[in-house]
Amino acid sequence: MLISVEVNGEVVTWDVDPRETLIDAIRERARLTGAHVGCRSASCGACTLSLDGLTVKSCCLLAAEADGRTIRTVEDGRTPPEVDDIQEAFIAAQGMQCGYCTPGMVMSVRHLLAQNPDPSDDEIRRGLAGNLCRCTGYVNILKAVRAVRDARLGR
Amino acid sequence: MTYVGASIPGRNNRRSAAGAATYVDDIRPDGCLVMAVVRSPHAHARIRSVDTSAGHDLDGVALVLTGEELRDAGIAIHPSGTNVNFTPRTAVRHVLAVDKVRYVGEPVAAVVARDYVTARAAAQAVLVAYETLPALGDARAALKPGAVLVEESWPDNVMVDYPIARGDADAVLAATPPSGRTSGTLVCNRVAATPLEGRGIIADYNPYDETMTCWASTQAPHVLRALLSAALSFPEGNLRVIQPQVGGAFGGKIPMFPEDVITAYASRRLGRPVKWIEQRDEYLSAGGHSRDMRCDYEVAFEPDGRITALKAGLLADVGAQSTFLGWLMAIVSAACMPGSYVVDHVSIRLRAVVSNRGPWQAYRGYGKEVAAFFMERILDDVARAAGLGRDAVRTRNFISPSHFPFVQPSGWVTDSGDYQGTLEAVQELIGWDDFPARQAAARADGRYLGIGIGHELTPEGSSRPDALLNGTDSATVKMTPRGDVTVLTGVTSPGSGNETGIAQIVAECLGADLDRVRVLQGDTQSAPHGNGNYSSRSLTFGGSSARLAALVIREKLEIVAGRMLNADRADLEVTGHRIRSRASGQSVTFDEVAAEIYRKPHGRHMAGIDPALEATRAFKIDNVYHRKDEDGRYNQYPTWSFSTGACIVEVTPETGDVRIEKFALVHDCGVVVNPLLAEAQLHGAIMQGIGASLYEEIVYDDDAIPQTPTLREYTLPGIRESVDIVLGHRSTPSPFTFMGMKGVGESGISAPGPAIASAIDDALADFGVRMTTMPFTPARVWAAIQTARSAGRGE
Ligand code: FES
Ligand code: FES
């Protein structure tokens, strides 16, 4: 079936299989491989994307459901090797090891800070509760998020 | 410039954060097909027939493979390797089941199709007729007389029976009065490493030159190449294995897996690239588990807490052992007891038993975490029975620093340590002495706080005899004509950051500028042979071999620079990519010396010098004994890191919920090359240790049917479960490695289990609760409290 979606600011038309998930369409058709697959059961958050401004686990959406909607990915149309301040903070704080969860984490942090520029530790924890990381024990991820929050607030 | 000891963020961080890292599923060779595996829904059944026609007929399906086809093609995994001290029963393995299936998730057939949805649909259309057999739900069922046999050529289900003895534990126990004895049963849960990225491989056979290139999410490309070559009878030299970025491994990607062989076979048959990417439900049933061990113990002790005898029966449920070598973890558990403690009379008997649970696969800790859980719980039991402090009992029994190297009853040789040092340091960090007052105040408020400790021993650098995972590795260091340095290593990084640490070591040893040192790993076509990543050895072995190679290059640079500067080598100072004569103050850059060597090989400074600026060296570690010596020493672990963990928990008796308020760990891994990365490793290991203690358990029912098929049942800790981790460092350098490095990576995974158990016991002391079965889920803690209440204890 034909669908039309806006991906990182560009409108594209895809002929998708009705069984195809959104994560597979983004990875295979748009060739945006920053979002990963870790479970296909909405448990890990590696596939987190922004759909009409809300973070979604794209493994549990069908590509067809994205018809007519707006998607943003971790790449977000940036020119390599440009990254945003959240990603810079993850880099400096060693907020990652294998990096598999990182793009999904970054998407959730972008959303969290857009909603709440000054989250407490508890609020950060709630905001990232849908993203699993098996490597870091979350210690340096928390450090990274606090660092961007403080930098944005000029603290 | 000192790079060793500097906290430098990982070199791959930027591409990872950008979402630009390339994992195996991000690679798409032209014309690549996708493979899906048909798996057994039964724990134990005979295969009556496999009807592939409906799968074949689907549009877009290229190939359907069955066990029979692979068997007829001569594809099988034959047992290999030698073992000292015990003889395991073995069997030839089929990568796709033939005749019968032994566990839920075992590969039975495979489908190759144009894309993922087609492959999955075709896999569902393959019809397998089974005749179910009685299934063995666990090791105890497998041991019952008359139990059905998992391996029909064996007389029973026991794979390994391994006794370890020193002195006469039975006699000492018999001679000790009841007040000086205690006994109990401990159970360690079955868990799975669960890296966020599953396993996966792409095989690309080229029929023209008969070569095959594989990209695999693996920890050891060279080892995978050798094993694949043997399994497929494919020339090793025609096989290239590339490790792209790996999304975590933790032992779970040490090769080789059945799917690797099936994928490579399919590609060779089709002459096209074939990709297999593991799905999470496949991983949780068939990717390999660990732990799953119980311990029935009896100890004798003196009134001062000194343990005089230890008798332990260990029963490991290794599942339906497969192509995996995970069952060896059971050996490590047994051989690491009593571990950190001196016990004169020891009798341990390990039985590793096959059942219809899934096979074992290596996981961070590799059996040492089980040994630590058992020993530390036993020490707590002795403290309770003797009426002594938990710390005092440890102090009383620790191997003292002057007793190293210390030979364990298993014959393994513990190299060095200062266990009392980490214990005291962690008590300081957690606030051990002030805690009782706090605890009493909280108790008066109706809150249940507890404090606990757990000591762990983490032998590293596993060096098995007659195996490709042994105590060596190699590295090449080379310099380009313009003075840039490339390091190629046989070790790999699944996200641990050793590429960064090795660059630091090479820059330091060579006197190079760190920014001009590039480290390349994970391609059998360019890297020298190596064993990859396991047993926390990548820096100790990879770093040490890179250092040896760097010193060769440095020597040549110094000789030529000395001639260029008219100076003696002893007069030269090498730092920051520059060689300087102290006497004259004149200097040349590495770039200039490299240009001299490459561009003027016949010039006056090059007389008698071989112009290669490239060296490969292999590091072979000491303190490994592969034949038993006259003292019974047989040692596969050259260096022994250790840590002591401590934690404070709060338990809610109404729900059984356990919350960790603070976790402290003081570790000793010798000299630390990169504190930022070493601490990051420790954070991750501790969190995995906490996960296995409170949240994670692979559960089977009595018929060996898995009850935890997705991450919704196998619950990994999320950020809401993350705890405040405080780290302390101490350093007793290893006498056997460069600068005394000992390896980090596994350290920290073992201490949480016993420390948390100890803290829960302490919090619930009123109830006399003793946590003996991991994980300490709310249901288990609550049940223990109810049992105590109905016995009239507590409140
Ligand atoms: S892959 Fe979507 S939540 Fe895990
Ligand atoms: S960095 Fe590996 S899963 Fe988060």
Automatic annotation (TrEMBL), chain A:
Residues annotated as domain 2Fe-2S ferredoxin-type: 1-77
GO molecular function: 2 iron, 2 sulfur cluster binding; metal ion binding; oxidoreductase activity
Keywords per UniProt: 2Fe-2S, Iron, Iron-sulfur, Metal-binding, Oxidoreductase
Keyword field contains Iron: yes
Name of the featured protein: (2Fe-2S)-binding protein
Automatic annotation (TrEMBL), chain B:
SMART domains: Ald_Xan_dh_C (SM01008)
The UniProt record lists the keyword Oxidoreductase: yes
Entry annotated with the keyword Oxidoreductase: yes
Keywords per UniProt: Molybdenum, Oxidoreductase
Residue ranges of domain Aldehyde oxidase/xanthine dehydrogenase a/b hammerhead in the record: 18-134
GO molecular function per UniProt: iron ion binding; oxidoreductase activity
Protein name (Swiss-Prot/TrEMBL): Aldehyde dehydrogenase
SUPFAM superfamilies to which the protein is assigned, alphabetical: CO dehydrogenase molybdoprotein N-domain-like, Molybdenum cofactor-binding domain
Species of provenance: Acrocarpospora macrocephala
Source organism, top-level taxon: Bacteria
